[in-house]
Structure formats: structure tokens, C-alpha cells
Amino acid sequence: MDRLQMRAMLWDMLRARAFEEAAAQGYAQGQIAGFLHLYPGEEAVAVGVLHAAEPGDYVVSTYREHVHALVRGIPAREIMAELQGKITGISKGMGGSMHLFDASRRFLGGYAIVGETFPIALGAAYAVAYRRLPEAVICFFGDGAVNQGTFHESLNMAALWKLPILFICENNHYQIGTEIHRHSAVTEVYKRACGYGIPAEKVDGMDVLAVHAAARKALERVRSGDGPQFLELETYRYRGHSMADPASYRPNVELNAYQANDPIAAAIHEAESAYPSPEAMAAAGADCISHFSDHCCQEGHLDEAEITRLRQEVQTEVDDAVRFAQQSAEPDMQDAWSIFHHNRRYEVLMETAQ
Amino acid sequence: MAELMYWQGILRAHDEEMARDPLVFAMGEDIGVAGGTYKATSGLFAKYGEQRVIDTPISENSYTGIGVGAAMVGARPIVEIMSVNFAWLAMDQLMNNAAKIHYMSGGRIRCPFVMRVPGGTAHQLGAQHSARMEKVFMGISGLRVVTPATPRDAYGLLKSAVRSDDPVVIIEHESMYNLKGEVPDEEFFTPLEGVEIMRPGKDVSIFAYNISVHWALDAAKKLASEYGIDAEVIDLRALKPLDRAGIAASVCKTHHAIIVEEDEAPVGVGSEVMAIINEECFFDLDAAPVRVHALDIPIPYNHRLEKAAIPNAGDVIAAVRKMFGR
Asked: Which of A139, A349, B299, B324 has its CA 20 to 30 A from that of A120?
């Protein structure tokens, strides 16, 4: 991997973090409502995987999908505007935080029902295989989704029909507020995929380079016709499940484990936070961004000054996105109707069809 | 004009659409090698191959979702659910995805998805294989719901559904697959909206759909010959959207309305049609509209009780006679 690629990945991780923190702020200020599921802590997953993808690949995501959309190339402005329910949003204000879609970037959406995305991804993969195209479908989901029936139904059919799909389990160890040992009999998720004959492995989801290497290898296999591949990426979300969740269920024992290799762990203990603050996690060294930026510096690809510049750059982009969203108009009922009826009038439908 | 059976109409529509457009494919349980429980896809596996006529595992929610996902990226899937009763398992994909993705994506992603489901009470199939679900489907914004009463419409509605860019649910009937009827030899499309007047009349409007159209037609014949009542039989055909203007036009003419449905009355087609009549032609009515419907009970297994639970032509006649006091 060359310097430019490393820089691009770090840039995306930083803008992902900055975007989500701005979203949290917007939520606190009442500009964003509803359920807002944020990604900080998990950036290495989205960035590592999506930097290994091709523009022709499809992405199916979850309700924690802002960063997938952002890294996939949807402008920060259009995502932030969607979060604020504005007509300039990527889904014109009709979708909201959990429903970002962009056909042109092959982003097949965020979905609010856990587990319903597996079949959607399979359908896209079926259509790809059917047309014999060299494309892949990347299906993101959390550890909580693997206990839905659709997970098993879909893994079976994906393997049975050798569909070109890469399953990415973002294992952040929590199904909303229930820890994985309390929701799954088998906690090593990748082993379940093995049960369907799908090649699967577990990778450190806090290490963007490891994620990228594993995803690239898996996508190569998908593209060469080997059928579905499965990666379990172990990661951690710093915030609660959504902004409505203070995450008070996470025990201190776990904090301690994350702080084990932390030279300044004592400082975090003193803070007595119920769960690790982003700053604390960054300081702990477990944080994927500080980990990766340290690596870039040590390898001589980047220096502190450039990282500071990158941080300023992404902050400018995010500030601009927030401003854009705030200045955008809200959709009116007429917009909702026209979107709903777009292409729905029978005469129009049949004219187009015939 | 050839006489075809209901299943042959469906088969012909599949065949023509698959021959025309390579992006049309069919999937469902036992539709391929076995040719479909009601023969509606027979011969297609041999003709189009296993990639276009897909035998699925028993995984209704997931293969329905596969249809939705494929439709989102440009394919034209026809998903068959072997019995409408199994469609309950697929409701998440149908309600939350097929119906809503077009809208939630701000109109950016279309979902030209077709689901075919046989429904209705056949012969002693028991409570879990005899239900109807049109009342559920027609309550979902974003879906189209149509239901053919004849071989002609079994053909024509599937043709239109495949061409439509909207998700369409087609409700067939387990007891009608061998029903014979004339189907024009040339290609045609039955509209996905609007009612059809099956028998014009001036005294009372009888609204029906799917199998109840046949009960209504039988009743109308007898009402004319024995009681001198000239009934108009309307096939609702499209349950979502319902044709308000078509319903109102008939009632404004006859001033009397009966709705016949195989389903239980609560929250059903009949209640919806009555609401429309109330809203559109309240002052045109000479009598309160009446619903003829199934008993509010899971369909019994016993053959006498099964028959008693769902309406028939005699019930329609009785309702009309009571309305007219004859």
C-alpha cells in the first residue's frame, strides 16, 4: 500500500469521526430527531472494506450507515441534509438517518429492521450473477443480526447458488444493550458461516490495514466466482446504540480490558465515565484512528503536521455540510406526494413499459 | 380466441414475458422441476433453465427479499408464494421493503417486483391453508394489489404487473386454477387500476372480486329470472388502489349496493368499499349498503362447516331479496 492510499484511508476515517460527532451535536441541538445511530470507534471497518471495493460493487448497509454512505462517496452535505430531513438530502428528506439510498453510487440503502438486509443483498447479488457481471455485493450487518432467521436462510441460499457477496459482520459485541455472550450461543460469529460452507475468518476490526487486506482478498475470491465470503470484524462503538441510549449497561470490567495496554489508563479511571469517551478511547491506543495515524507516522508516510492539516480539512468539510443542511429547505407535502407517485400513475407506467 | 384454464393464462403470461425480456425471472417453492403446485409455471424450467426458474428453499421471507433486492438493481422477478398463508412469513420484506423503498429513497430506487399468491378456501385444507390476506395487502401504502377472476385477467394482470415499475401483489385462488374461459390470442394487458362491469344492470350494484365474482354472476342470473331484479355485477379487480370513481358511478346509477367477499367482514374489502360509497354517494342511496362475507372464524376443517363459513351465491340472493323486500 502506498502513501497516497494510506493518506486517503486516514482522511476517510477522520471525516467519518468528524461527521458523526457533528451529527451528535446536531441531535443535541435539536436539528436532528428520531433514532440516530453513530459509528465512532468502528471507522476501520467501513474504511478498510470500502477502500477495497470497486465502483461497480453494490453496498447494502444497516441503520448505522452514515459512514458507509460517506466513504462510498455520497457527499457529506447530502447525508447531513437527510439527517435534518431536508429536501436536499440524499433521500430528499423522505428517508432520514436510517434510510440513505443512492442508485448511482450503488448504495442500496440503510434499513431499520435488523436482518432484513441479507435477502436484499442476495437479490442484488443474484441479479449480478444472472447477468454474469464481475461485480460484488457487500453486505454490512451487526452481531445482533445473526440471530434473525433471514441470516440463516440467506447464508444457505448464498452458498447454494454461489452468489457474489461479501458478508461483513461488524461485531461490536452489543445487540443494542445486550452483550454478545448473553445473546448468542456461539459468539464467534464467523463459525456460523462455516456451517454453511462459506469461507469465513475473524479479523481485528480496529486495524484498518488488516481489514483492508482481508476485504481485498475476500473480494478477489468473490469476483473470481468462488461464491460468498464472510468476514467477522471485531470492533467497538464508543457511543450507545443510538443517541437515545446512554450505554449504562457496559461494565467497567470491559473498560478495563480496553484500557489494559493503555499507558494513561489511570487518567481514564479518574474520569469515572460510565463508558469510554471518544477522547479516552483515543488516548487508550485501542482507537482505530489514533492507532492508524500513529502507524502512518511511524512508517514515515505522514507527519503530525499533515495529520493536523487533515483534521482541519475534514472539519471544514463537515462544518460546510452542517451549514448546507441548516440552510436547506424542508420538503412540503407536495414533494412527498410527487415522490410517492413518481412513476406510479398507471398510464405512465404502462407507456414506459411498452 | 382460445379457451384456456386459469393456470394456463398465468403460464402464458410468464412465457411471453420471459421470452421478451431476459431480466424477467421466476422464483418460488417447487415452481421449477416440479412445474408449480398448480402447474402455473410448468415447462418453464426446461425452456429457460434453472437460473431463470428458481426452485427455492422453504425460506419465504428471504426469497421474497431476494426478489426485492434483484428488482432494486433492475431485474424483473416474479416471486410465487405457494399459499397466501405462507406470505405471513414474508411480510417484513413485503411491507417494510418492497412497498417502501421507492418512497424512502426519495424516488431514487424503483422496485418492479411481482408476487403471485394463491389464496382462498379450497377443499378442507384447514385453517392454516384457507385464509385470505387481501385485507392486509390492501392496507399497505406503496403496494399494488390485483386479483383476477377469470383466465383472461389471470393472463392480463400478470402481463401488466411484470411491466409495471411498482411492486404488485397478485392474489389468485386455489379453487380457480382449472376454471376455463376465453383468452384473446393476441397479446393484451389488463389494467392494474379500475373496475370492470361483468354484467350491466340497473337495480343493484353487486361488488365482488376473485372467486366471489362468480357467486355474484350466478346470483344475478337467478335474481333476474326469478325475482325481476336487474343486478349489475362489478369486478373490483384492483384492490389497491380501489377505483373510487368506478364504484361511485355504479351506485349512483342503481342506488343500491352489495359487497361480496370470501373474507371475514372486519377491516376488509367490504368495509373499504362501504366507506367509499358513504363518502362518494351517500345521498344517492335508497338503502343501506350490505356486506356478504365469511363468518369471523378460522376456516373449519369439517366439510359442512367449511362450506357454511364462507358465503355463496345463495347468500348473495338472500341479501338482495332482503334489501328489496321480495
From this structure: A349
Long-range contacts, stretch A280-285, CB < 8 angstroms, 24+ apart: A281/A41, A281/A236, A281/A238, A284/A258, A284/A259, A285/A261
Helix pair A3-28, A304-327: axis angle to 10 deg: 40
The enclosing H or E element of A83 equals helix A76-83
Residues 6+ apart with CB under 8 A from A44: A13, A205, A206, A207, A208, A211, A233, A235, A288, A289, A292
Could you tell me if A89 and A58 are in contact, meaning their C-beta atoms sit under 8 angstroms apart?
no
Per-residue pLDDT of chain A (354 residues; tens, 9 = 90+): 788 999 999 999 999 999 999 999 999 999 999 999 999 999 999 999 999 999 999 999 999 999 999 999 999 999 999 999 999 999 999 999 999 999 999 999 999 999 999 999 999 999 999 899 999 999 999 999 999 999 999 999 999 999 999 999 999 999 998 999 999 999 999 999 999 999 999 999 999 999 999 999 999 999 999 999 999 999 998 888 888 887 888 766 664 554 343 333 322 333 334 445 555 555 555 788 888 888 888 888 888 899 899 999 999 999 999 999 999 999 999 898 888 886 566 666 566 555
Is residue A89 within 8 angstroms of chain B, CB to CB?
yes
Unique residue bearing C-alpha cell 344492470: B201
Global confidence as pTM: 0.90
d(CA B108, CA B101): 9
Told to judge if B303 belongs to the known catalytic residues of this protein, a careful annotator would answer no
Contact A101 B191 (CB under 8 A): no
- CB neighbour class for A69 (10 Å; exposed up to 12, middle 13-18, buried from 19): buried
Distance from the Cα of A227 to chain B's closest Cα (Å) equals 15
Please give the grid coordinates belonging to residue B86: 405462507
A58 to chain B: closest CA residue: B73
- Whether the link from the prior residue into B112 is cis, omega within 30° of 0, is no
Please list the residue range(s) of chain B that carry CATH number 3.40.50.920: 196-324
Domain that includes residue A201, residue range: 3-236+285-353
Return phi, psi of residue A115, to 5°.
Answer: 95, -10
Q: What are phi and psi of B114, to 5 degrees?
A: -120, 130
Contact in structure between A34 and A83 (CB atoms under 8 Å): no
* Beta bridge partner(s), residue B117: B171
* Residues paired with A285 in a beta bridge: none
Contact criterion met (CB below 8 Å) for B4 and B181 = yes
Contact B143/B102 with Cβ under 8 angstroms? no
* Structure confidence by residue, pLDDT tens digits, B195-233: 999 999 999 999 999 999 999 999 999 999 999 999 999
Residues of B whose CB is below 8 A from A350: 160, 163-164, 189
Interface predicted TM-score of the whole assembly (ipTM), two decimals: 0.88
| Residue B194, all three cell numbers | 379500475
Class of domain B2-183: alpha beta
Give the CATH number, domain containing residue A102. Answer: 3.40.50.970
**Do A17 and A225 touch, CB atoms closer than 8 A?**
no
Instruction: Say how many domains are in chain A.
Output: 1
Residue A274 lies in a domain: no
Which residues lie closer than 8 Å to A346 by C-beta, 6 or more apart?
Answer: B191, B192, B193
Active site residue B129: yes
B104 to chain A: nearest residue by CA? A95
**Are the C-beta atoms of B180 and B149 separated by less than 8 Å?**
no
